[in-house]
Amino acid sequence: MAEQAQFEELARQLSAFGAVKRDMGRILPPDCPSGSAAVVTLLGRHGDMRMSKLAELLAVDMSVTSRHVAHVAARGWIERHPDPADKRSRILRLTPAGLEELEELSRRTTHLLTERLADWTDDEVAQLIRLMTRLRASFGDCRSAPLRLPAAAAAPVVEETTRTPAST
Fold first, then answer.
1. Mean predicted confidence (pLDDT) in 110-131
2. Out of 16, 49, 64, 74, which could bridge 166 as a Cys pair, Cβ 3.0 to 4.6 Å?
3. 152-161 b/e (C-beta count within 10 Å ≥ 16 → b)
4. Is residue 72 within 8 Å of 80, Cβ to Cβ?
5. How distant is the alpha carbon of residue 55 from its chain centre?
6. What is the pLDDT of residues 41-88, one digit of tens each?
7. d(CA 123, CA 36)
8. Longest pairwise C-alpha distance within the chain
9. CA atoms within 13 A of residue 67's CA, in its CB half-sphere
């Protein structure tokens, strides 16, 4: 098992990962904020689904999901159809315009990653994918179980600092 110092460094690196996410957010089309991109991407990956399933996959509540869905629907990227199993529910489905938006998002993301990781070998990219997949699997569905701290760590000491996580 890794040593405490390694876990502390991993925590710093994960915290600083926000810079990567911000950079990826900057490449999104102006009319497609990150929440909308997530909706289109999840529907492209998982297919038609109820709003409740989408909220679960987004790990946000229904009100936030509704706002994202309304934005995406207003652009014609999804359709909402009655659920045959429960007429009160709606099934969300990508439209042809939504599929085009998904292709554009994929193109932009692939271009950015190709540009930024140009000096990485294929093996290094494959290793990163494997390790990130394993990290996510180790956490499972972190939304369903609250973090349980040992009794000694129940009241963590917070350091006062002016540094952002990316500068540590």
1. 96
2. 16
3. eeeeeeeeee
4. no
5. 12
6. 999 999 999 999 999 999 999 999 999 999 999 999 999 999 988 888
7. 32
8. 55
9. 8
